[in-house]
Amino acid sequence: MEIFERLESEVRSYCRGWPVVFNEARGSYIYDEAGSPYLDFFAGAGSLNYGHNNPELKSKLLDYILGDSVVHSLDAYSVAKRDFLQIFGEVILEPRGLDYKVQFPGPAGNNAVEAALKLARKYTGRETVISFTNGFHGMTLGALAVTGNSMKRGGAGVPLNHAATMPFDNYMDGQTPDFLWLRSLLEDSGSGLDKPAAVIVETVQGEGGINVASAEWLRGLADLCKEYDLLLIVDDIQMGCGRTGPFFSFEEAGIVPDIVTLSKSIGGYGMPMALTLFKRELDVWEPGEHNGTFRGPNPAFVTGTAALDKYWRDDRFQKETVAKGELVEARLKAIAEEHAEVGAHARGRGLARGIAFEQPGLAKAVCREAFDRGLLMETSGPEDEVAKLLPALTTTEEELERGLDILAEATRAAVKVPQPA
User: Fold this and answer.
1) How many CB atoms lie within 10 A of CB 279?
2) Whole-number mean pLDDT of the chain?
3) Domains and CATH numbers, the chain
4) 179: confidence class by pLDDT, cuts 50, 70, 90
5) By its UniProt entry, which PANTHER family does this protein fall under (predicted)?
6) Which of 4, 40, 152, 169 has the fewest CB atoms within 10 Å, measured from its CB?
7) Radius of gyration of the chain (CA)
8) Burial 210-230 (b: 16+ CB within 10 A, else e)
9) What's the pLDDT band for 419 if we cut at 50, 70, 90?
10) What are the C-alpha distances in Å from 344 to residues 225, 337, 366, 386, 420?
11) CA 234, 43, 57 angle in degrees (round to 5)?
């Protein structure tokens, strides 16, 4: 560990909760350098929906690299990009009736969000973007301005402007806001709210605590955006690519966002790639007006194409994810009921799940006990009050059951240990 502590920045975080050196990974397991296995219910924060080193995706990647194919191409045309665009249109966009243009803004989710915010402002000529309590959209300045977490915002070092925060679904004592407040602000010339360019929202807030927006609330938000000529941006970076069941997390609500951001598992293999999707009429970019050196990640195009071809040509994978989500939900509810005295309750959708605890520090203790038993998890929520599960969508039911058994044991152990105030 000495080399990491001596040379790596103090900003490192996950390694503090997982104090081992990892070396190999296959499927739903990752192994430390001593060969000890850890069942991975973190999946690269949702970047590994198809598991570690998925053999079919790996085979395509190896063939591509061994063939001296183009790796880096900026936004030049390449065979790998053509193949990806063709299958993305054929398998994802066309069956859903989505007439989106595709922008490759850079390698990471924050690149997709920054492009979405810039495009919304350019198209409308307005500056303000509405975001929601406990939302998370990235760590660059534009994305951070529409992020709720005060600790992360505090690291900016400059004012984070041109954003307005509204309550997310169920934020106010479990009540579902009906947008009356926002409607009043938009209609009252004395409200102090400049007419916004857009609204940005996660259908399920991952980093914010696995907060699930209802389909009714999302439809109400979409209707309000249409009524007041605001662009609706859905950030599907963590919850897209099948995490909640359907490929896009907003499908259940029956809405069609103006702009969608994708990253994490869109590359299939955990390789960096991001997309900003938008309705055709919004494509007002000038050539080169938004660019980046690594916006042509050909190896990720290859593995992304392979993942779409293998998992998304029919609805079998989606149905399997929904069924697995129901299994996890039932087990989490049982664990929560066992520990009602500490205010435990389950939440989530699909294979984005969590247990929230009212007792401070308990979720961290649960994740620590889980790690000691060979299970990787993380916390989320503004006070780290949620023990969060993001297993690979390819995790088998047997592996899910094993991980949930470990979680049940870890929770019992953590509840017995006095937590610091």
Assistant:
1) 17
2) 95
3) 2-54+316-416 (3.90.1150.10), 60-311 (3.40.640.10)
4) confident
5) DIAMINOBUTYRATE--2-OXOGLUTARATE AMINOTRANSFERASE (PTHR43552), DIAMINOBUTYRATE--2-OXOGLUTARATE TRANSAMINASE (PTHR43552:SF2)
6) 4
7) 21
8) bbbbeeebbebbbebbeeeeb
9) low
10) 35, 7, 12, 9, 17
11) 90
